[in-house]
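User:
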Amino acid sequence: MSQPTYIDDFTRQFAITPGDTALVIVDLQYASGSREHGLGRLLAAQGRLADAEYRFARIDRLVVPNSRRLAEAFRSMGAPVIYLTYGARLPDFSDAPIHLKAWMKAIDNRVGTREHEIVDELKPLPGELVLNKTTMGGFASTGIESHLRGMGIANIVVTGVSTNNCVSMTAMEACDRQFGVVVVSDATGTCSDEMQESTLKTFRRLWGRVMDTSEVIEEMNAHAS
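Assistant: Predicted structure:
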């Protein structure tokens, strides 16, 4: 943990409780979270799968297991678990934004493909909200804000991939909409330690809180009735 700085005096403090906090799991799909599908299959065909070893190893060892652990804890406390996916809804990818269209096409990330599905280890339970986005941030293209308001949610805990893209964008959008936001350090992942740590360092400055899985569960349990 880095030493406190002057900016910490101005970073919002809030507590997470089962009554007003939801878990939001971001983009843990086969498209970019599996060695055998999507990105993994593309890189393997190019002979470059080793380039993504950090990413896939972190997803396998930390991101998926800790996201599952958090989901189970939230469910046991009666707190909502919400899933965000990303990918084109239309088969020709014409609804994908220009800056993401080539990426979605390359890994065949569109509704109806295996790539678009959430990984089996984290499948949503019946009745849990799953929202698809075509943008990096979840708030720009899913209507998640109205769902959260309707559910009485004031805070969200965010896990998933990639920390420096869809996770942080969703988290920052939520902060700008007055939600308290926690990014889970050991349940998020990207392509290097440098990207991971720099993103978390940025988020700590005026945006929200960074906690690990055990800290989140402990604080939620402490406020459980």
